[in-house]
Automatic annotation (TrEMBL):
Keywords, alphabetical: Cytoplasm, DNA damage, DNA recombination, DNA repair, DNA-binding
Domain notes: Has three domains with a flexible linker between the domains II and III and assumes an 'L' shape. Domain III is highly mobile and contacts RuvB.
Region (Domain III): 156-203
Entry similarity comment: Belongs to the RuvA family.
All residue ranges annotated as the Helix-hairpin-helix DNA-binding motif class domain in the record: 72-91, 107-126
Protein name as catalogued: Holliday junction branch migration complex subunit RuvA
UniProt subcellular location: Cytoplasm
The encoding gene: ruvA
Main location: cytoplasm
Species the sequence originates in: Peribacillus glennii
Molecular function terms, GO-annotated: ATP binding; four-way junction DNA binding; four-way junction helicase activity
HAMAP family xrefs: DNA_HJ_migration_RuvA (MF_00031)
Function: The RuvA-RuvB-RuvC complex processes Holliday junction (HJ) DNA during genetic recombination and DNA repair, while the RuvA-RuvB complex plays an important role in the rescue of blocked DNA replication forks via replication fork reversal (RFR). RuvA specifically binds to HJ cruciform DNA, conferring on it an open structure. The RuvB hexamer acts as an ATP-dependent pump, pulling dsDNA into and through the RuvAB complex. HJ branch migration allows RuvC to scan DNA until it finds its consensus sequence, where it cleaves and resolves the cruciform DNA.
Length: 203
């Protein structure tokens, strides 16, 4: 229904952002809302997916068409809903997700919240060999090692925001607190905390 929205980012929270366009504030669920913290009051283009069911009427947004396409593919897998698909995309490592599916790496896929062995196997059965046209930009570097994020030092409000965002994605309090303790002496932006925490939980 909606391909994308262009507008100013008016609010950033753990689960969604609000993009204002034409005097209307659109609540958009995104994989990592705090990516947009640096763009508050600035215009952005968000590629959107309108999800409608009897009990759900929500707008999901992504920075690229590739992310949006992978999100819609994930929704077609039995056992994965919008929240689970967002959690997978929040890792920021679309190439690693595609690689895991292509290599039938269940041990990597089950690290995402809500993805058990049965769902991981279903992802592989449903999506293997069908993602190259969806995310073509990721395949040239499919087998490259991911780059680790570096941090500095200190504890701040940004880490609290990251913790909220991780819980909103479905990670348990125990999992989140474990990585938070490890990261508490680093000084990062909320976005960097989330990315680094996700990298740690996916190892």
């Amino acid at each position: 229904m909606f391909d994308y929205i262009k507008g100013a980012v008016e609010y950033v929270g753990p689960e969604y952002i609000v993009v204002e366009n034409g005097g209307i504030g659109y609540q958009v669920m995104t994989p990592n809302p705090f990516i947009f913290s640096a763009k508050l009051k600035s215009e952005v283009q968000i590629f959107t997916y309108h999800h409608v069911r009897e009990d759900i009427f929500a707008l999901y947004g992504f920075g690229t068409r590739e992310e949006k396409a992978l999100f819609t593919k994930l929704l077609n897998v039995t056992g994965i809903g919008p929240k689970g698909a967002l959690a997978i995309l929040a890792s920021g490592k679309v190439d690693q997700v595609v690689q895991a599916i292509e290599n039938e790496d269940e041990s990597f896929l089950v690290k995402f919240p809500g993805v058990g062995k049965k769902t991981a196997r279903q992802m592989i059965l449903d999506l293997k060999g069908k993602l190259e046209n969806i995310v073509p930009d990721y395949f040239p570097n499919l087998f490259n090692d991911g780059k680790a994020l570096s941090g500095m030092g200190g504890y701040s409000e940004e880490l609290d925001e990251a913790v909220q965002a991780l819980k909103a994605l479905g990670y348990s309090d125990k999992e989140v607190q474990k990585v938070a303790k490890t990261l508490k002496n680093e000084e990062l932006t909320t976005e960097q905390y989330i990315k680094k925490a996700l990298q740690m939980m996916l190892r």
